[in-house]
């Protein structure tokens, strides 16, 4: 009966959230969870839940384009997902292949300059998925406006283990000095590396874990994390805007911490050290993000309503 009221309230709320945004994160990574629970609650098969989830995936890609996100990494099939029942696995492989091909043919994907890439041990996937990957990567290879990384047969530990083994082998062969191993050396060897460090991780479906997803790129960058309760097929634009707001308030609190430290430093030094302190303070300021106007503290809200 009050459906229209609810709808207009949601529209107004979505507009308000959007107005409050002062800048989007550069790189968003998403753990799309809850497809089967969504299906069970609607009395349908797991495959229907995954199909509904894939529609959300398409919407999220569009929202990223609209809001200026430059890179989106999606956890579509983890190494753990190989343990699922064969019929569910096959349905997922069909769905992922279809989606990769339809994204690659989509007019909007080309208009927005989306480049599709995959990360993970893709050699473990069946030929039809590998062919779809090859097709999508080739069709979008000339774009560079928005990177869509699809994590398939991906596991963060396996990725780091591969690098550790490579480094150990090179050191044992005398080709690498262990003392020379630094962050750059590891990043060069992460063959599945996204383009940029992750700023925000979103996980739907209520579980508060990051499940072996991008440990190097997200933890190293201390990404903001937004856990929310809607299942992936239910994830709305309002949820997405709230996740971005969490990222923004996190940036703001970092900015304040840096400013506090800078002031404390100035107070702690005497006149002779003042010049040096001023230089450090101006460096800290250069790296501080832009302030946001409204510092509402609702970042722990979880559900859509
Ligand atoms: C997790 O929900 C979801 C998956 C394992 C599959 C996600 C894949 C898609 C939505 C297809 C996207 C396609 C592309 C090309 C990006 P779950 O099965 O773990 O559900 P549950 O938590 O309720 O059990
Ligand atoms: Mg799950």
Describe, in plain words, how this protein is organized in 3D.
By secondary structure, this protein is an alpha/beta fold. It folds into two domains: 24-235, Undecaprenyl pyrophosphate synthetase (3-Layer(aba) Sandwich), CATH 3.40.1180; 271-304, no CATH class. The chain contains eleven helices and six strands. The chain has helices at 3-20, 35-41, 46-67, 86-105, 107-111, 127-139, 156-172, 183-189, 215-219, 237-268, 274-287; strands spanning 27-31, 71-78, 114-119, 146-154, 200-203, 224-227. Helix 3 packs parallel to helix 4 (86-105). It is globular and about 70 Å long. The two termini are 18 Å apart. Farnesyl diphosphate (FPP) binds at residues 32-37, 50, 53-54, 57, 74, 76, 81, 92, 95-96, 99-100, 150, 205.
CATH architecture of the largest domain: 3-Layer(aba) Sandwich
Any low-confidence stretches, pLDDT <50, length ≥5?
291-305
| CATH class label of the largest domain | Alpha Beta
Give the biggest sheet: 6 strands, parallel
CATH T-level fold name of the largest domain: Undecaprenyl pyrophosphate synthetase
Number of helices: 11
Number of strands: 6
Bound molecules: farnesyl diphosphate, magnesium ion
The CATH homologous superfamily of the largest domain is named: Decaprenyl diphosphate synthase-like
Spatial ordering of strands, largest sheet? 3-4-2-1-5-6
Write the H/E string, N to C: HEHHEHHEHEHHEHEHH
User: In angstroms, what separates the terminal alpha carbons?
Assistant: 18 Å
Number of domains: 2
Query: Radius of gyration in whole Å, from Cα?
Result: 22 Å
Helix coverage percent of residues? 40-55%
> Given the C-alpha coordinates, what overall shape results?
globular
% residues in beta strands: 5-15%
